């Protein structure tokens, strides 16, 4: 019998993950059955179980894949030269997020994975790992912010990273759940809160208000 190539095995694995992602987005984790995945993928139960033994394994694999994609995107942005301001970084990341959040987009799985992690320890482990990894990337960004003078030398980088971390999940939730969020408005808000400029080493200062002449 001819040996199955690694490329074929990887294509089949990805075929299953793509089908699972579509099912989870359509019906949610809890309402999706393995039979749904079999049907969507066009594969037999035996073919699917060869790669994934349970729905939990599919969830973990999808979470890991998404984490890798997000970290790759953030790595590219954080290591840009010159260093992007927080608003510029968020602009580039939210552009990518928006492109991944269509009717069957992978970003739609994120809130489901977060909620599942609260009640399912099997799902919680990869979600925690993903969150910790992304927060560490924000810390790396904070280190670069300090290096260019956007943060004071004694800044608590862990605290900065924890605060910046909320910018992207905040966009995801509003983008998916609230119809009134305009991305450009969100970016203006970030720029207002983090008014850094490439032309200065410290945040831009607003002109001081002056009293009307008597």
From TrEMBL:
<dbReference type="InterPro" id="IPR039538">
    <property type="entry name" value="BetI_C"/>
</dbReference>
<dbReference type="InterPro" id="IPR009057">
    <property type="entry name" value="Homeodomain-like_sf"/>
</dbReference>
<feature type="DNA-binding region" description="H-T-H motif">
    <location>
        <begin position="33"/>
        <end position="52"/>
    </location>
</feature>
<feature type="domain" description="HTH tetR-type">
    <location>
        <begin position="10"/>
        <end position="70"/>
    </location>
</feature>
<keyword id="KW-0238">DNA-binding</keyword>
<dbReference type="InterPro" id="IPR036271">
    <property type="entry name" value="Tet_transcr_reg_TetR-rel_C_sf"/>
</dbReference>
<dbReference type="Pfam" id="PF13977">
    <property type="entry name" value="TetR_C_6"/>
</dbReference>
<keyword id="KW-0678">Repressor</keyword>
<keyword id="KW-0804">Transcription</keyword>
<protein>
    <recommendedName>
        <fullName>HTH tetR-type domain-containing protein</fullName>
    </recommendedName>
</protein>
<keyword id="KW-0805">Transcription regulation</keyword>
<dbReference type="Pfam" id="PF00440">
    <property type="entry name" value="TetR_N"/>
</dbReference>
<dbReference type="GO" id="GO:0000976">
    <property type="term" value="F:transcription cis-regulatory region binding"/>
</dbReference>
<dbReference type="InterPro" id="IPR050109">
    <property type="entry name" value="HTH-type_TetR-like_transc_reg"/>
</dbReference>
<dbReference type="GO" id="GO:0003700">
    <property type="term" value="F:DNA-binding transcription factor activity"/>
</dbReference>
<dbReference type="InterPro" id="IPR001647">
    <property type="entry name" value="HTH_TetR"/>
</dbReference>
<dbReference type="InterPro" id="IPR023772">
    <property type="entry name" value="DNA-bd_HTH_TetR-type_CS"/>
</dbReference>
């Amino acid at each position: 019998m001819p040996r199955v190539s690694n490329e074929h095995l990887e294509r089949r694995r990805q075929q299953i993950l793509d089908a699972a992602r579509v099912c989870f987005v359509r019906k949610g984790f809890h309402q999706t059955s393995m039979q749904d995945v079999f049907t969507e993928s066009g594969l037999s139960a035996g073919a699917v179980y060869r790669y994934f033994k349970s729905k939990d394994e599919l969830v973990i694999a999808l979470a890991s894949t998404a984490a890798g994609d997000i970290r790759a995107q953030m790595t590219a942005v954080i290591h840009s030269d010159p260093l992007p301001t927080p608003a510029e970084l968020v602009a580039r990341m939210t552009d990518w997020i928006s492109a991944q959040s269509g009717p069957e987009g992978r970003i739609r799985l994120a809130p489901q994975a977060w909620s599942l992690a609260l009640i399912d320890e099997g799902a919680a482990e990869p979600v925690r790992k993903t969150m910790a990894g992304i927060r560490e990337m924000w810390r790396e960004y904070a280190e670069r912010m300090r290096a260019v003078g956007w943060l004071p030398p004694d800044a608590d980088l862990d605290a900065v990273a924890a605060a910046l971390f909320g910018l992207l999940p905040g966009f995801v939730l509003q983008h998916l759940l609230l119809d009134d969020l305009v991305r450009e408005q969100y970016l203006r808000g970030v720029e207002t809160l983090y008014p850094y400029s490439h032309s200065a080493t410290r945040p831009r200062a607003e002109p001081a208000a002056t009293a009307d002449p008597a």
